[in-house]
Amino acid sequence: MSTRGNLLYAQSGGVTAVINASAGAVIEAARRQRRRIGTVFAARNGILGALREELYDLGGEDLAQIRALAHTPGGVFGSCRWKLPALEADRAPYERLIEVFRAHDIRWFLYNGGGDSADTALKLSQIGAELGYPLTCVAVPKTIDNDLPVTDCSPGFGSAAKYTAVSVLEASLDVASMAETSTKVFVYEAMGRHAGWLAASAGLAARKPGDAPHVILMPEVAFDETRFLARVEATVEKIGWCTVVVSEGVRDGEGRFLAESSTRDAFGHAQLGGAAPKLAALITDRLGYKHHWAVSDYLQRSARHVASATDLAQAQAVGRAAVDYALAGRNAVMPAIKRVSASPYRWEIVPAPLEQIANREKMMPASFISKDGFGITAAARRYLAPLIEGEAASKWRDGLPLVAQLKLKRARRKLPAWKG
Amino acid sequence: MSTRGNLLYAQSGGVTAVINASAGAVIEAARRQRRRIGTVFAARNGILGALREELYDLGGEDLAQIRALAHTPGGVFGSCRWKLPALEADRAPYERLIEVFRAHDIRWFLYNGGGDSADTALKLSQIGAELGYPLTCVAVPKTIDNDLPVTDCSPGFGSAAKYTAVSVLEASLDVASMAETSTKVFVYEAMGRHAGWLAASAGLAARKPGDAPHVILMPEVAFDETRFLARVEATVEKIGWCTVVVSEGVRDGEGRFLAESSTRDAFGHAQLGGAAPKLAALITDRLGYKHHWAVSDYLQRSARHVASATDLAQAQAVGRAAVDYALAGRNAVMPAIKRVSASPYRWEIVPAPLEQIANREKMMPASFISKDGFGITAAARRYLAPLIEGEAASKWRDGLPLVAQLKLKRARRKLPAWKG
């Protein structure tokens, strides 16, 4: 006899161009299981909404709007950068969550996020078992940082990578045409605190040797000012201009970020931003070249208009698989993307245990970084190229992207307010 | 009896997503006039290439590649930021240009640029007449700044405006989903040193009152820190987050650029330029809100992948009209866009005398700026909305924009080197 009950979906951490596509896939797949799933809920602002019993009842949402989530960037239910305390330090929030789940007969919890969210899903699955509440927790992968282990790539990354490569290609044509009398060096800053996946993906813009970007700075390689300036100067002397891509997480030999502010986010991570203006100023100061720089920031992770069709398909596939796994009672797993074939590129979804995912970061392999530390290798290109394949167009109205309009009806509260 | 001879095309100033589309239209239209036009030349790096006798002979270019210019950003022949000296101060460069034109039998000169380029075309038409060399000069309009007079809008602006509105719309969905526990204020910086056209176009992202962007800062309105902070705070208190769009040219009441201030940010770091990071630091310092900021810089003017179909059509139309005007002997004119009907939007190309265009800047009408100075009016929306209409897709290969590959064969020199 199969479990019957309700399903809760929530979004966590930095959003992506396709996290709502995963949400739409989850909701649509769950709706097809009417004999087992009563109500599909979404938590407002991630796990915080679950703690606060702020739940959206999605029963009344139009199917057309649920499908429109596939072309809606941002996180439609709200996300959060808020990590549950360690289970050993404070059991109260975990017990509260189980209480909320019990009050709303939530038997399946799908948490769409990165490594921290996988950890939350794992702990909830454990505490559910301890408290004798039958709960199946599935993590749905998402991160533009591409740093989730086990899975071949993370939904959200391919679209951000495509935005990065397209933007660097386009802006480099601009610089090339201005270089004779104006800008000689263009510096583009990509997100990526610990791993250089997005900066590396800019390398796809170079179709043949010598094409831009000419220098890619990744956090995996300590910044060496002298070598960097020599490379920029040599490039400008050879072709007249130079495009530099820098990851926000690049550090010098002493481990200091090129661009560190004193603020930290809710997970205790340093808030970065500003490596590009620093490098640009350095270049003009030392080499005398006129510069321009761009920091695309949130644009790179919300640019649904230039999403990768591959990434979109994967974001939807992990959403559908998460519902399948949940209903099959596969507790504490995450649908992972497995690369079945490199050329032609083929992939499938397989379950991965959360123990292998929670709180682990996948770094870029050393074999992806060129010997000089300023570029990517053929192996990196083989890995990255299929992830940006295909154009998943936005829907447009009046020249602007059309996005989902949900009713977001709140579910009636059944418990006292959470005093967390 | 009609003139026979050769035609020279050149690109000037900051490039746009569609200046090459104008180039392609010029070249294709000129090729259809085989009985009158012998060779179509392009100057390398704008007027500098003409002075240096660095000309590309476009006769051998494949038509498919000329047509591919319609989806190729940047300036394929190279541009320049270099203004000829005043005619009264130094006639030598003007005489040299006529000498180059005479050597290559160039009877038509089409200069694709903004106000400075219109001035150059005007002066060349005058000196040609003075020196008894029959030359017809036509300016082809182009600028993302939209500051050319007479013409209803400038090719290149519509696509940059669309990039701006799309990016602000997408990133604002991101901020909205993060605001509960993370970023509350997002600041986007648009180009525009003297006029706020691009910052204003971000206002199109707001489909109903209260939608992002919530604050638009334009150079036409002196920056008032107290009022600005009060508006940001009120917005965050009301809806939980706030999107700010700032033009790079915004100044305070004493005329000082925000971006050029020597003050330090909230964390004691020297500001390295950029109105957005400066405002973002101010917001965190005074209001305590976590911020993110983006400076899209060259991305906004090279993002051909999200070009406006209206803009593309106009860029091609002015290119074709320029050839028509040139062959008709209409000297010292520019094809201007005339808005024939606002709704439905209809436009046509009309000739405008360069005297009315050279060295003049069109500012935004005061009626386009809302009374509080933080937004745009319904009149501004009516003007701007049609300019971003329609999506002119890139051509794609391997997930990346496909761009024209020209042979760029240099024409044989006939004169001694220019010692300018």
TrEMBL record, chains A, B:
List the SUPFAM superfamilies hit by this protein, alphabetically. Phosphofructokinase
- Give residue numbers for the site Important for catalytic activity: K142
Where is this protein primarily located?
Answer: cytoplasm
| Cofactors required | Mg(2+)
For site (Important for catalytic activity and substrate specificity), what residue positions does UniProt give?
D116
GO cellular component term of the entry, any: cytoplasm
Give the range the annotation lists for the signal sequence. none
The record lists the catalysed reaction(s) as: beta-D-fructose 6-phosphate + diphosphate = beta-D-fructose 1,6-bisphosphate + phosphate + H(+)
Entry's Gene Ontology BP terms: fructose 6-phosphate metabolic process
Ranges of residues in domain Phosphofructokinase: 9-324
Positions contributing to diphosphate binding: G14
Any one GO molecular function term? metal ion binding
Annotated control of activity? Non-allosteric.
Q: What is its EC number?
A: 2.7.1.90
Q: Transferase among the record's keywords?
A: yes
* Gene3D superfamilies with a match to the protein in the record: 3.40.50.450, Phosphofructokinase domain
The residues annotated as the active site are: D145 (proton acceptor)
Q: Which of this chain's residues are annotated to bind substrate?
A: T143, I144, D145, M191, G192, R193, E248, Y298, L299, Q300, R301
Record's subcellular location: Cytoplasm
UniProt KW keywords = Cytoplasm, Glycolysis, Kinase, Magnesium, Metal-binding, Transferase
Instruction: Specify the pathway.
Output: Carbohydrate degradation; glycolysis; D-glyceraldehyde 3-phosphate and glycerone phosphate from D-glucose: step 3/4
Family membership: Belongs to the phosphofructokinase type A (PFKA) family. PPi-dependent PFK group II subfamily. Clade 'B2' sub-subfamily.
Query: Main role?
Result: Catalyzes the phosphorylation of D-fructose 6-phosphate, the first committing step of glycolysis. Uses inorganic phosphate (PPi) as phosphoryl donor instead of ATP like common ATP-dependent phosphofructokinases (ATP-PFKs), which renders the reaction reversible, and can thus function both in glycolysis and gluconeogenesis. Consistently, PPi-PFK can replace the enzymes of both the forward (ATP-PFK) and reverse (fructose-bisphosphatase (FBPase)) reactions.
Q: Which PANTHER family match?
A: ATP-DEPENDENT 6-PHOSPHOFRUCTOKINASE 1
Subunit record text: Homodimer.
Would you tell me the protein name for this molecule?
Pyrophosphate--fructose 6-phosphate 1-phosphotransferase
